[in-house]
Amino acid sequence: MLIPKKLFLTKGVGKHRDYLQSFELALRDAGIQHANIVEVSSIIPPNCEIIPATEGKKLIKPGEITFCVLAKNSTNEPNRLIAASVGLALPKDRSTYGYLSEYHSYGESAKKAGDYAEDLAATMLATTLGIEFDANKAWDEKKQVFRMSGKIVKTTSITQTARGDKNGLWTTVVAAAVFIMG
Prior knowledge:
Oligomer: single chain
CATH architecture: 3-Layer(bba) Sandwich
CATH topology: Pyruvoyl-Dependent Histidine Decarboxylase, Chain B
Shape: flat
Helix content: 25-40%
CATH class: Alpha Beta
């Protein structure tokens, strides 16, 4: 049974004339290029510890199969604003699971993309916890409902934005929640 014990959030950006190389450079900037990444969906296991990226990156061995929730976006359009964000929502009762969401957008600030990713994760968690709220309400209004419920203790996000290279190089952004097994 593969159940992660820890996770960390990281982000990066890469630019290159080749799309694939720009992605690899974004992973390098995020500090996870030496892992064999397997993308997974959105569940944070019960009692999974959130650790700093500096600590988590040291725990990954070159070539290791590494599971993560990965948001990515790319463009070769000069000056086009791109974003990749991962949102996180943890329940107050850490013996139950939390949620991660990935979000990719164009033309949005890091704050807007990050807020939306947090909103997605918190909404998914809220529905599993039976918290009633209006999905059409603004994020700030929903945040208050989540807090008042006493069931969601933390939401956060990590977001990477970049503008497309002025000379048309591929620009790639990544944001990731990286799971550590041991």
